[in-house]
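Honest question from a wet-lab person: if I give you the sequences of every part of a complex, can you actually get the arrangement of the whole thing, not just the pieces? Trying it with mine:
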Amino acid sequence: MAERMPRPVLGSPFHLLVLLCSFALCAYAGVRLLDGDWLMITVWFVGAAIVHDLVLLPLYAAADRALITVTAGRTAWVNHVRVPAALSGLLLLVWFPLISGRVSERYQAVTALSADGFAARWLLITAALFGGSAVLFAVRGGRRRPGAGN
Amino acid sequence: MARSSLPGRLPRGPFSPDFWRSPLRGTWFTSVLGVVLLAGITILFVTGLVSYAAYNPDLSPVNDRTPDKGVLGFYLFSWPTDPPWLYRLTQGVHVTLGLGLVPVLLAKLWSVVPKLFTLPPARSVTHALERISLILLVGGALFQFVTGILNIQLDYIFPGSFYSLHFYGAWVFFGAFLAHVVLKAPAAFRNLRRMRRGEDEEPDEELTAPRPDPPTVTRRGALGLVGGASLLLVATSAGRSIDGPLRQTAVLAPHGGPEPGHGPGAFQVNKTADHAGIRPDDTTEETWRLTVTGRTGTVRLTRADLLAMEQHDAALPIACVEGWSTSDQAWRGVRLRDLAALVGHDEPADVYVESLQLRGTWRHAALSAGQVADGRSLLALSVNGADLTPDHGYPARVVVPAAPGVLNTKWVTRLTFGEL
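Yes, you can. This is the full assembly:
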């Protein structure tokens, strides 16, 4: 049994020291970060990583894979859909509070600026991105893409 | 006994290396993104600390949102007044660069995601600790970006004060970031040098797909998309730091688009009078008085008294922690140092400023003697040739060169000079 279960190895001592130093600094700041609603702050901190790694990333990766499947490998136009979709999705992700209108009332009351039109402008940008991509695709027209190398 | 490795059973799903098919993943792609983030995040961290120092948190408890900072405030210094656009620059860079790095961060996390599912979970004690450290690194990075991006859109759903979450969160993240840089940067730079010499990338079995799908985009193309996405975010945000037509280019960013209102007061407002709880009855010529206290006692001044004092001009911007700013506005009013002298402070003294506003974290603020001494630091009564508008602080507001916007207190009612 003893030879089947090797003792856990320590790994690089230098790496170990760097990590312990880092943990000490993180802990020093961490107790201050968590001074308050520690449970919710922890949920936000760890949850951000979990939501990204296990929800957001799988979702967009699945969408991308679906795109490749439906285009059946005609790579020439995969990117003409992928690029505008990625850019539009990114803008929505970053400006979601304003685009969705969830902060409209506060934004207007606090800044004296209009909160209308964020969604409309995002849609126009999205239209421009897909439209531009379509024009580019049409212009490239009959040109065949060289074999998918690289 | 059942815990020993079972060579017969193959890992499934994302735990199987075969699950990961993108031909883009590999040390070169990850290294390029990592080096960009190394530079970018370093700038974010430094400009963030600079912004923290700009509030002069050591001057007075009212300026300090994180009194338990301990050694994390080790580098604080008295914030200067020159150049007057200093905070406008550093905070504009902090927020705009942060937005621009969002696609780089997402791409970097995408490029290394197979490592999350690597088996065995730990090859050694150090490896186990390194993986724990990655939770702090990834969680910390996302926490910082998410709280920052929500805060500039006034979406205060995070669990606590933004100042404290974003400041301590930055230090937790930075602790993990430092370790990650020490452990990974040498390999990243080595990879880039190899690629520049035209050699193949260093293999990494956790990153490179063993059975990749046929490529649909080149690595350069993918980096181009990431860079283009960064440019798009920066191009649609940077305008919020400049008045006039350029602000209209910030089409989705808060404080982008057209200026509020018309006339001399048509420039960006942080908090409207209405929102701050200013009662119009408290700001009339008859009711409003400025109380100035200092070494020789207290004087109470009407707005007419202030207008009868020597008037001075200063061209200064308003620059907000949220990353937007105005261009220079032509302020006119009484110098703070003249008001200090009125109550016996011929040498510059610190000042405690109180506002009429009923709500708001920054209805009280402290300015340093150095800020009071600057001839451009005014209790402004007018801007751009007209009386202040209610939203810009009528009857009187503070303007100080290079100070964060919230230290330019509006609707001022009391100034107390002296050691704070």
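Two things worth pointing out. Chain B has two domains: 13-235, 263-417. DSSP finds nine helices and ten strands in chain B.
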